[in-house]
Amino acid sequence: MSRVLASPATLGFALIASATALGIAGTDLVLPAVPSLPAALGGTPARAQLVLAAYVAGTGLGLLLFGELGARIDPRKALVVSLALYALASLGAAFVSSLDALIALRFVQGAASAAPAVFAPGFIRALFSEGRALRMIGLLGSVESLVPALAPIAGAWLLVRFGWQASFVVIGVFALALAALLGAIASRLPRLASPDARGSYATLLSDPVYLRYALSQAFALGGLLVFVFSAPAVIIGPMGGQLSDFILLQVSGIAFFILGANVTGRLAERFGRERLITGGTILAAIGALAILLYALAGGNRPAMLIPFSIVWNLGFGLRGPPGFLQAVLAADGDDARGAALVILAILASAACGTALAAPFVASGLLGPAFVAAAISTGAVLCLAVLPGAKPRRQASL
After folding, report:
1. What are the counts of helices (DSSP H) followed by strands (DSSP E) for the chain?
2. Residue among 292, 335, 313 nearest 66 (CA)
3. What is the C-alpha to C-alpha distance for residues 163 and 178, in angstroms, rounded to an integer?
4. Is the dihedral of CA 308, 309, 314, 317 positive or negative?
5. Cβ atoms of residues 19 and 178 within 8 Å
6. For FRET with 5, which of 114, 210, 241, 376 sits at 20 to 30 Å CA-CA?
7. CA distance 47 to 31
8. Which of helix, strand or coil describes residue 300?
């Protein structure tokens, strides 16, 4: 057992997964403190929201930046440096005296947070066989799905006990520890094969096979996120529910996503990745369309959303890990750029969809359900229209 726990593959995955989760926590752990920032640092509640927006904007830039750097420098060094920068920006944020300074540091913090997500697929592919890599990506997705559910609770506790600075200090300390640990074992991590530095994002964006997997992944998750982001306002507002109704909806959905994500390895061995991606995407779209039909029928009971959400989350859980892996494989060795574009497309589809749905949340379920279902259906259309990977690109499990 000790040899398994100490193996470079297991240790490397644990540290990379922790770094990726910490990047996600940069939003969710800080979220409860945002309303208290104007009183502490000055400014308005509207300006305090830029603390969140700056982090997202920085993440978008960081994805493109580290995707490009991954083709030019050793990702092991880039990952350690990015975590150190993330730690410094986080600790610096705890000592600012103005809201504008915090917003600026949040942009830097967001940019640095993108590196683990960009480099994780390449490291996982190098650490494990292709079949096990699929299972580990499913496990990584499970870890990532728990952060938005648990981090706000921890952030609220830190805010009450220690003040708004505490969440930034915790992030900074953990990031420094991860940077030190990864720096110590960097030589034990595999050196990733360097793609052709002459490659580009334009090359990937012109490849229909890559676009099939990248866009379907982005639309499948983007549609689900639009629904999740809109659900609290809709449930507590026009549907007349309670916060507990949203929590139950979220917990049940996450549970079935985790279930789906952790059986993908065995199902892919039996049915193949392409069938699993297609079946999971269709199942997720069915869940989205079921919520839309419920809204069209005038449904107004939050509890009725739970079974439809379970189908939706289970479907994405089944298609998420193999879909992401296929997108990275379709990048033909350009793992960093390939992963960066997928994640950026997810952020873009979720942000645009949420913006489109926002004017309708006060009116009820129908508007957000329509936007989310349309995006989710777009994932099915991508699989139907764009060509799949040729057999030579799909190594056996």
Report:
1. 16, 0
2. 335
3. 24
4. positive
5. yes
6. 114
7. 14
8. coil
> How far apart are the C-alpha atoms of 168 and 25, rounded to whole Å?
10
**Two tokens at 394?**
């799909």
178 closest CA partner among 341, 20, 374, 340: 20
Q: Report the alpha-carbon distance of residue 62 to residue 97 in Å, rounded.
A: 26
* 151 membership: H or E segment, kind and range: helix 130-162
User: Would you state the structure tokens that stand for residue 207, as one six-digit string?
Assistant: 């490849």
Q: Answer whether residue 396 shows pLDDT above 60.
A: no
Cβ contact 125:335 at 8 Å: yes
Of 344, 317, 379, 349, the closest CA to residue 117 belongs to 344
> Which pLDDT band holds residue 392 (cuts at 50, 70, 90)?
very low
Whether the Cβ atoms of residue 138 and residue 265 lie closer than 8 Å to each other = yes
What the block records as the tokens of 147 is 């952060």
Distance CA 246, CA 266 (A): 32
* Pair of tokens at residue 276: 């699993």
Structural domains for the chain: 2-133+151-188 (1.20.1250.20), 201-390 (1.20.1250.20)
Tokens of 333: 């060795």
For the chain, the distance separating the N- and C-terminal CA atoms, rounded to the nearest angstrom, is 25
CA 117 to chain centre: 8
Calculate the alpha carbon distances from 77 to 74, 131, 343 in Å. 6, 27, 21
- Using a pLDDT cut of 90, give the percent of the chain over it: 57
- Which residue type is seen at 141? G
Beta-carbon-side half-sphere exposure of residue 277 (alpha carbons within 13 Å): 27
